[in-house]
Amino acid sequence: MNKKSKKINKNMIILVLFIIIVVAISVAIKMKNQGNSALASAEEKRIAEEQRIEEEKKKKEEEERIERERKEQEEKAKKEKEKAEEQNATGVIYLTFDDGPSADSTPQILDILKANDIKATFFVLHYSEENEHLIKREQAEGHKIALHGYSHTYSEIYKSADTALNNFMKIQNQVYQTTGEKSNIIRFPGGSSNTVSRKYCPGVMTELTKKVVENGFRYFDWNVDSGDATKPKNSDVVYNNFIKGLKPNRNNVVLMHDFTKNTPTIGALQRVIDYGKQNGYVFRKISDETPMVTHSVNN
Ligand SMILES: [Zn+2]
Predict the structure, then answer these.
(1) Whole-angstrom Cα distance, residue 157 to residue 298?
(2) Can you list the positions of beta strands (E) in the chain?
(3) Which of 98, 225, 228, 258 is catalytic?
(4) pLDDT tens digits for range 189-219
(5) How far is the CA of 279 from the centre of ligand 1 (A)?
(6) What's the structural domain count of the chain?
(7) Residues 257 and 233 both lie in one domain
(8) Does residue 299 lie within any of the structural domains?
(9) Residues 75-97: pLDDT tens digits?
(10) Which of 7, 171, 217, 266 has the fewest CB atoms found within 10 Å of its own CB?
């Protein structure tokens, strides 16, 4: 090889190397740009997705707000209608059933109430797992589940104001576990006027009636006694006691029971409802707005 052709070869190599470098650089730039635009489009997608989620969330919140307002309006209209009915009525009847639930009486009472489209109040005691469905049924059918006590044994309850308060707390908790609702409507076993508690703790009802209110409870006695817990009893006696106790232009809180085998009340209930309706009364369940109906305390 001569000197000249050596030089040409060297130039060729430099040229080829140069071309390779240029190509390599341009390929590298292109790849980087592609990568950047892929990243950019991924970022755009992510932002768009976030916006979509945000818009959907806003739409859902708006729908929930409209639904909530609709329900509030409906509830308000219902309350106003009920209030007007009460003002035009002869009086109001609050049917209340103590000492349940029981497997035999409670379903029969619920059937009669349902057939007449009447809501009532159940002052319940501690219940077994087998009877839990009755509490759920009472709730599902729109009745008020109120509290009577975990125990009904006077000697246990009325040892002190604290034991009596605890007796309500315990049944409140059991009802809450079943229904998800914390009831604060109570009725003292024996009523607030009972004297039996004097035997276990003198002055306990005086202290307790204040204490329950301080603890957020509202208590209800009764002003119509169906007499279904005292003997002798049959449906006629229950019905007549009801009529005798009923008074116009007031809230009539009727004491009845859904303990086991309470056939006198079950037998009288339809007649009780018919009498109330025929005489222009309306039936209501106790609510947080119902004024307390109480006896005078005797211990
Ligand atoms: Zn009772």
Answers:
(1) 17
(2) 91-100, 121-125, 144-149, 185-186, 218-219, 224-225, 251-257, 281-283
(3) 98
(4) 999 999 999 999 999 999 999 999 999 999 9
(5) 29
(6) 2
(7) yes
(8) no
(9) 999 999 999 999 999 999 999 99
(10) 7
